[in-house]
Structure formats: structure tokens, C-alpha cells
Amino acid sequence: MNDACILLGKPNVYGSIFRFEGQVTIFGIPDGPCYRCLYPQPPPPGLVPACAEGGVLGVLPGIIGSLQAMETIKLLIGSGKPLVGRLLLFDALAPKFRELRLRKNSLCPMCGTHPTIHKLIDYDEFCGIRGQEEPDMDVNVPEITARELKLRFDQGDELFVLDVREPHEYQICNLKGHLIPLGELPRRVHELDSSHEIVAHCRSGKRSAQAVDFLRKAGFRKVLNLRGGILSWSTEVDPTVPRY
């Protein structure tokens, strides 16, 4: 949808929902970011659960959809301050709204200075088709909890923190770890020292579990997954770390 909007010169009033959280912004406005600026590559097939698996609060689509409708009306009548370059986050459990700034990526293949995408592509192949995926099974890897990791830090243990999220996630919050997105790990594994004790983390622990599984198969033995990811660190150790 993002690519089609960019090619047609139309704004994309974007909304996303999952469980108790929602997001709203506007992509595709001149001088503003597009979806590919935020997510250059799709996640590995099967990583993002469907609503039937993850669930969504029933009233949340109405809340986010109403916000999308309001942003659309503002664009049509040319009034107000549209959500361009701003990502509105809604946490239904709090409940509260937060806002993140989004910046246009000059190297974006869709809306950057020198775009390389000029027509719609095969999105089934690009994103993966759920019906052709391997079964979504939990990866069984050694783990460490957020409290245990904090204790290790307090004891002065030398741990190498590997962050396998995307760069824009790292900008939101981080544990000052070494950033290697999961999709880049196979070709950048040489940046890691197998003699170090490595703790991998992502947002919620699933991507980092895949990273730990990959590293163990590559011969790394002293590698742990942060259970619950940086979200658990925010909940159990440091509430000042933003949740997203």
C-alpha cells in the first residue's frame, strides 16, 4: 500500500493495531517519510503473528480507525496539523498516547533522493506467504531474565550485549548494546567474538531467540537470550526505558 501511494502521489493514512496497542501516522507526503523509511525490510516470514494468534482488543480498531478518519478529513480540508513525521502511539491499558518523531530517509529506495523502486513488486515473495511458511514453533534457547542481567551488570561481569532490532527501534530506546539487525546477522557474524559471553535482545525476545539459535548453530556457546526483550527490562528493571 505504501509503494502504491508513493507511485500515485497519494498520502497513506496509516493505522496499525496489535493486542492492546495501536499506531497512527501519515506516509507519502512530500518531504515526509514513507513506510519504507521506518521499515526498510519486512520481518522474517512468520515472525509477526496474525490476529488469530496474537489477538487484538475488540474496541481498538474503532479507536485507531477514528483517528485515521480524522487525519484524512484534515488532509481533505487542509486544516490542522496532520501526523506527518509523527507516529502517534496509543496504549489502551494505560490508557495514554505518546508521540515519536519520524524522519525521512534520504537513502530510502522508495521516496529517497535517488529511488530505486519505480513499480510495484512481487510482495508475496518479498514478505513471505503465511501458508508457505514453516510451522511457527518456539525456539528453545538458554535465557536470562532482566533482573538476572541487572545483577550481572551490578557485579561488574563483562557481558557483550547484542541488539538484533532495527535501527529505528534502537533510536527509541536501547541498552547501549552492539546493533546488528537480525536480518544482517549471518553476514555480520564476524563482528562477534565467541570467547565473550553474549546476551542477545530484541523488543520482546522472539527475534533474539532466533539470533541465539543461529549463533549456537554457528559454534557460539556462551550466548543467552534476554527473556521478554527490552520490554521486560523496562517493566522489571528500569521503567524510564520507553515501551513501544
Describe the structure.
This protein starts with a helix and ends in an 8-residue tail after the last helix. The protein has two domains: 2-132, NAD(P)-binding Rossmann-like Domain (Rossmann fold, 3-Layer(aba) Sandwich); 143-236, 3-Layer(aba) Sandwich (Oxidized Rhodanese, domain 1). Residues 130-137 have low confidence and may be disordered. Helices cover 32% and strands 17% of the residues. It is globular and about 60 Å long. The chain has helices at 2-8, 35-38, 51-54, 60-77, 123-127, 146-154, 167-172, 185-188, 206-217, 229-236; strands spanning 12-18, 21-27, 86-91, 96-101, 143-144, 160-163, 178-179, 198-201, 223-226. With 244 residues, the chain is of the alpha/beta class. The chain is built from ten helices and nine strands. It has a five-stranded parallel β-sheet with strand order 5-9-8-6-7.
Mean pLDDT, rounded to whole units? 88
Number of domains: 2
| Name of the level-1 CATH class of the largest domain | Alpha Beta
N-to-C CA distance:
23 Å
CATH superfamily of the largest domain: NAD(P)-binding Rossmann-like Domain
**Which range best describes the helical content: under 10%, 10-25%, 25-40%, 40-55%, 55-70% or over 70%?**
25-40%
User: Which shape, going by the Cα principal axes?
Assistant: globular
CATH topology of the largest domain: Rossmann fold
The tally of beta strands, per DSSP, is: 9
Topology pattern, helix = H, strand = E:
HEEHHHEEHEHEHEHEHEH
Number of helix segments?
Answer: 10
Strand order of the largest sheet: 5-9-8-6-7
DSSP strand content: 15-25%
CATH architectural label of the largest domain: 3-Layer(aba) Sandwich
User: Which regions are unreliable across 5 or more consecutive residues at pLDDT < 50?
Assistant: 130-137
Instruction: Give me the secondary-structure category.
Output: alpha/beta
Report the C-alpha radius of gyration, rounded: 20 Å
User: Biggest sheet: strands, sense, closure?
Assistant: 5 strands, parallel
